[in-house]
Each structure stands twice: as C-alpha cells, then as structure tokens.
Amino acid sequence: MIPPRFEYHAPRSVGEAVALLGQWGSEAKLLAGGHSLLPMMKLRFAEPAHLIDINRIPELRGIREEGSTVVIGAMTVENELISSPILQARVPLLCEAAQLIADPQVRNRGTIGGDIAHGDPGNDHPALSIALDASFVLEGPNGRRTVAADGFFLGTYMTLLEENEVMCEIRVPAFAQGTGWAYEKLKRKTGDWATAGCAVVIRKSGDTVSHVRIALTNVAPTALRAEAAEAALLGQPLNVATLQSAADAAIAICDPAEDLRGDIEYKTAMTGQMVKRALTKAWGRCS
Q1: Of 145, 96, 136, 82, nearest to 113 (Cα)?
Q2: Looking at residue 239, what is its pLDDT?
Q3: Does residue 159 contact residue 153 with C-beta atoms inside 8 Å?
Q4: What distances in angstroms separate CA 95 from CA 19, 78, 88, 156, 179, one per listed residue?
Q5: Are the C-beta atoms of 164 and 142 separated by less than 8 Å?
Q6: What does the angle CA 199 – CA 225 – CA 32 come to, to the nearest 5 degrees?
Q7: Does residue 54 have a pLDDT over 70?
Q8: CB atoms near residue 264 (< 10 Å)
Q9: Span 119-141, average pLDDT
Q10: Where are the alpha helices (DSSP H) in 77-148?
Q11: How far apart are CA 80 and CA 98, in angstroms?
C-alpha cells in the first residue's frame, strides 16, 4: 500500500526538530531509520500529517567516552555499534547483540534510538539497555532530561518519551573489570524478531554472583527486567540449581502473545532456556 499524503520536514538541529514537534503536536512523527514507521504508514496504522526527518542532525550521531560512561548518539546505526572500537573495549555486549539484529541491510540504516523509542517489545535494544543499566537523554521544549532505561518502557509502543521530545543520547556505564555478558536470542530465521531473548550482565566475587542484571525480549507487552531471577542468584554460586531457580523466576513474569513464532507455552519455556544459556555464557566470560 501507499502511505497517505504528508508534509516532509528536514531539521538541521535538535532544537529545530523540537520546535516542529511543538508546532504540529500529535500530527507529527519523527523519522529515524524508518524500518518501523514506514511499514506502519503503508498499512495506514500510522497516518502522520507531518514527517520530521532527523537524519540531517549531526549531533545525534557518534560514539564517545565521558569518563566511565559511553555516550551513543540516538541516530547511530547498528553497524556503527558493531564496528566501534570504544564499544568493543568498553561495552562489548552491544557489539555482539547488534550482529543478531535483523540483516545487513537493516543494520546499515536502523538506529539504536529508533529501536528504543518505538517501544516495540520485539525490538532488541530495550532489554539490552535495561541489562546495561543505561539511561536516555531526551530533549523537549523545556530542555533536556535523563531517564533510566529500567522504567522507561510502559507497554507496547508506549514509553516515557513525550510526543514533543527527541531522544538524543543513550548513556551506558562502561563495564567494570571482570564483567561477563551475553545476549541469547531464539529466532526462526535471519532478520526475524526474537521468539524469546535474554540479555545478561554479571560479575562475580570468588565463586559467587556479586552483580547481575537480567532482561527479557518479546515475552511480554514490553521488555522486562527479571528482578526475582537476579535475586535468586545474588550471593550464590552459578550451578544447575541456581540456574534453574533464575529460569523459573523469569518464566513466572512472562506474558507472551501467541503468534506465528509459537504459542504461549512454547515461548514461555524458551524464555527459561534463553536465561540459562545467557547466564552460562556470561558467567564464563567473567575474569
């Protein structure tokens, strides 16, 4: 199908984009990579009268370090995450996980900020950002504010991002020495969304877990932090029993939708398997 008619805008600064959002309100949509918005427009699920293309705003791109924090521009594309020396050294989970997102064509165009701001439970970066304890810098008419990833996602296509705000940066704490990480994603084919996915960041003290963050992809109306699963592991060794306890706790919070990727029982069971796989891989990377 062909999208309905719209007026096209190409601001050159975040301030200009925010002003356009303020001018047109709910009639406007931001265009980042376009992989989510344009298909919805073709299906007439989204019919913005004004499309604001933020691809020409240079301050929204790039990856840099600020002390112990890695700052990623919201318009940075997936392939730039994969190839970034900073991320490879400081937050390698993002490099590895980005390789599991869609396909090379999509990764050349799709942006980290668009993936997050869309609020789709099938997208990968919401769970990754929760596991990484990331925060998001949002700019609106009253200036900038920073919100934590944990709590940002409210439901399917629902986030704390207001309709007059632009996501500018993703801020991620660099991994401490000895951090292990993993993203395990079950999918039917290359380019597909996850049937179930799990992101883990973990550290140990001696033979026991001293820090762990576990987040789940596409097994509920929004990305989930598995706090009970984390609690089951803290202060404990990682073994068959504690892995099962964490998996059971993650399974308990699942609320997946039945679709072509599987029924509710299958998706829930696969969540437990992804949790076990991710924890095992991440634990093996602690050093």
Answers
A1: 136
A2: 97
A3: yes
A4: 34, 8, 6, 26, 15
A5: no
A6: 70
A7: yes
A8: 14
A9: 97
A10: 78-83, 85-90, 92-98, 104-107, 112-117, 125-131
A11: 9
Residue entry with tokens 């919805």: 40
Answer whether residue 142 shows pLDDT above 90.
yes
Q: Three-state SS for 237?
A: coil
How much is the pLDDT for 167? Answer: 97
Cβ pair 230, 207 in contact under 8 A: no
Cα→Cα distances 170→49, 150, 210, 275, 285, Å: 28, 13, 25, 25, 25
Output the pTM of the full model. Answer: 0.95
**Terminal CA-CA length for the chain:** 53
Mean of pLDDT over the chain: 94
Q: What is the C-alpha separation between 12 and 163, in angstroms, rounded? A: 19
- Write the DSSP symbol of residue 58: G
**For 147, how many CA atoms within 13 A lie in the half-sphere containing its CB?**
19
Q: Please provide the DSSP assignment of 257-272 as one string.
A: PPBTTB-HHHHHHHHH
**Confidence label for 1 from pLDDT (cuts 50, 70 and 90):** low
| Long-range residue pairs from 235-239, CB within 8 A, at least 24 positions apart, any chain | 235/208, 235/209, 235/210, 236/208, 236/209, 237/207, 237/208, 237/209, 238/204, 238/209, 238/279, 238/280, 238/283
Please compute the mean of the pLDDT values over residues 173-190 and round it to a whole number.
95
Give the containing element (helix H, strand E) for 186: strand 180-186
Percent of the chain with pLDDT strictly greater than 70: 98
Extract the tokens encoding 285.
């990377």
Model confidence at 241, in pLDDT bands (50, 70, 90)?
Answer: very high
